[in-house]
Amino acid sequence: MAKRESTFFNMVMALLVITFIASASLGFIYELTKEPIEAARAAKKNNAIRSVVPVFDNNPSEEEYRIEVSGGELVFYPAKKDGELVGTAVETFTNRGFSGEIILMVGLLPDGTIHGIEVLEHKETPGLGDKMESDKSDFSVQFEGQNPEDFRLRLRQDGGDIDGITATTISSRAYCEAVELAWKVYIDKDADVSYELPAKEEAIDRVLPGFANNPVMEEFQVVYEGKVYNLYPGRRGRNFTGTAVESWSESGYIGNIRLMVGFNQEGIITGVEVLEHNESANYGDLIENARSDFYKQFVGRDPSGEVLKIREDGGVIDGISGATVTARAYCEAVQTAYEVYTRGERN
Questions:
Q1: If DSSP codes are grouped into helix, strand and coil, which group holds residue 18?
Q2: CA 183 to chain CA mean position, Å
Q3: Judging by beta carbons within 10 Å of its beta carbon (0-12, 13-18, 19+), is residue 339 exposed, middle or buried?
Q4: What is the DSSP letter of 148?
Q5: Among candidates 337, 296, 338, which has minimal Cα distance to 317?
Q6: How many whole angstroms separate alpha carbon 240 and alpha carbon 313?
Q7: How far apart are CA 324 and CA 284, in angstroms?
Q8: In whole angstroms, what is the distance from residue 336 CA to residue 261 CA?
Q9: What DSSP string runs through 222-258?
Q10: What is this structure's pTM?
């Protein structure tokens, strides 16, 4: 019997047949396992709901509602007993985990007190980040019974009340962020939960004491060490209330850090806002007011009598863990703002 000659057409047909069979097999397996997977997910979600809110007799999933936020949406599951709301389970998330997205179920009482928290999904490192799971550590216990109205959902090193998981700072911060997001939207569905940096006008409003004029309309410039800086005076009637100085440092870990720093008539710092930066997520970006209380260390200080440097450099400011370069640059920008405010030459 003659041996069949191998041709390009035969090879292509063979590959097509193999591909078709493989695709069909995958499709069959997907359809076969789709329902059990979905059922398992639904069971996990329902168990999480039961774990994080008080005893209820309704079906929270049938009364769920959703609220869109930046980057996705939150799902709310009202839990009721005899028709009365006893708590709400909130499916919340963050994309800032060490290995990506973390999804939590946070149980809140009607007054906003945290009743319980369960992890639904994550990809954090086994033996480290996965200790956020309630069956692997007591990390979640410190949130229970706390009302974020007077309990700061940040790590202690970031000015909050939470002890992080050892060696998993990023995972711990992300967990706190997801819980805070759930609480903020639950308390006020129209709450601004974005982490966008403020525009110039908004930053001025935040850093200056009460004023009635439009500081931007009275903007003037000052030259200090060969560079031009913008200043915005605040007034109420004929009374001067303070000045906002737009300052920067070129010594950030990843480029410039630009700030708006407010001073009252005595030169005391009244506020600091970050306008622009490119610092690392979960480290350098903790200079943002929305992400940590780092900025609060500067408010109320008199730069003429205090050294605005981090403590390891002989100053009075606690640095940011893992972001020393960024913290130094921030201090430098604040100090420059003060020098501009007091010693610069009006342009």
A1: helix
A2: 13
A3: middle
A4: T
A5: 296
A6: 35
A7: 8
A8: 10
A9: EEETTEEEEEEEEEETTEEEEEEEEEEEEEETTEEEE
A10: 0.79
Sign of the torsion formed by the C-alpha atoms of 133, 136, 142 and 145: positive
pLDDT per residue as tens, the chain (347 positions): 455 555 777 777 777 788 877 777 676 665 655 566 566 666 778 899 999 999 999 999 999 999 999 889 999 999 999 999 999 999 999 999 999 999 999 999 999 999 999 999 999 999 999 999 999 999 999 999 999 999 999 999 899 999 999 999 999 999 999 999 999 999 998 888 888 899 999 999 999 989 999 999 999 999 999 999 999 999 999 899 999 999 999 999 999 999 999 999 999 999 999 999 999 999 999 999 999 999 999 999 999 999 999 999 999 999 998 999 999 999 999 999 999 999 876 65
Encoded tokens for 83:
């028709």
Q: In the sheet that 239-252 helps form, which strands lie side by side, from edge to edge?
A: 269-276, 255-263, 239-252, 227-236, 220-224, 345-346
Q: Rounded distance, CA 235 to CA 232, Å? A: 10
The residues that bridge with 168 in the sheet, in sequence order, are: none
The position carrying tokens 């711990």 is 172
* CA–CA distance, 178 with 291 (Å, rounded to integer): 12
Comparing CA positions, the residue from 235, 232, 324 lying closest to residue 275 is: 232
Return the structure tokens found at 312. 């390891």
